[in-house]
């Protein structure tokens, strides 16, 4: 089980979001090889602008571990986190973030990437093309 495996799992969640007419972003939180949270965007379903896949996954993971700190966890998300989600990840002290497609318009890296906890490591571009294509197809259908 490597980053590609877990990103494929996040893509399954992203496809579930698309099926609900949500922006297709999926997230997984893992501890070692164990998935402890699965989530996808629910902003339309819940009428909640904060219901991003990452926020849902971080909350579920914290509930699973009965801890607000996720320092031994990895967040896998199909799209580079926005500033809000990066800020939430900061507070969880998540150990690692792995994302698929970069978000040049709204991704946290547009603000220098300094919003994450200093101990959090990041890897971007895992299955980038597949993650990006899913988003492009979704928005192509909207325009």
Can you characterise this structure?
With 143 residues, this protein is of the alpha/beta class. The protein contains 5 helices and 5 strands; from the N terminus they run H-E-E-H-H-E-H-E-E-H. It has helices at 3-19, 43-46, 53-65, 83-92, 128-142, and strands at 26-31, 34-40, 74-79, 96-101, 121-124. Strands 2-1-3-4-5 form a 5-stranded mixed beta sheet. The longest helix is centred in the N-terminal third of the chain and has 17 residues, at 3-19. The termini are far apart. The model has no long low-confidence stretch (mean pLDDT 95).
Head-to-tail CA distance between termini: 37 Å
Helix content: 40-55%
Q: Class by helix and strand content?
A: alpha/beta
Give average pLDDT, whole number.
95
Strands of the widest sheet, in order across it, are 2-1-3-4-5
Radius of gyration: 14 Å
The low-confidence parts are none
Q: What is the approximate shape?
A: globular
- The succession of helices and strands, N to C, reads HEEHHEHEEH
Total E-strand runs: 5
- What can be said about the biggest beta sheet? 5 strands, mixed
- How many helices? 5
Task: Based on the model shown, name its key terms.
41% helix; 5 helices; 5-stranded mixed beta sheet; alpha/beta; 143 residues; globular
């Amino acid at each position: 089980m490597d980053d590609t495996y877990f990103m494929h799992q996040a893509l399954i969640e992203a496809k579930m979001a698309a099926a609900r007419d949500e922006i297709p972003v999926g997230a997984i939180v893992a501890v070692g090889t164990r998935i402890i949270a699965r989530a996808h965007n629910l902003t339309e379903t819940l009428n909640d602008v904060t219901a991003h896949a990452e926020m849902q996954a971080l909350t579920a993971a914290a509930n699973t571990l009965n801890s607000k700190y996720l320092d031994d966890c990895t967040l896998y998300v199909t799209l580079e986190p926005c500033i809000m989600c990066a800020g939430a990840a900061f507070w969880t002290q998540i150990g690692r973030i792995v994302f698929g497609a970069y978000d040049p318009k709204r991704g946290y890296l547009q603000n220098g990437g300094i919003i994450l906890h200093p101990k959090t490591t990041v890897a971007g571009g895992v299955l980038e093309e597949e993650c990006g294509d899913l988003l492009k197809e979704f928005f192509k259908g909207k325009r």
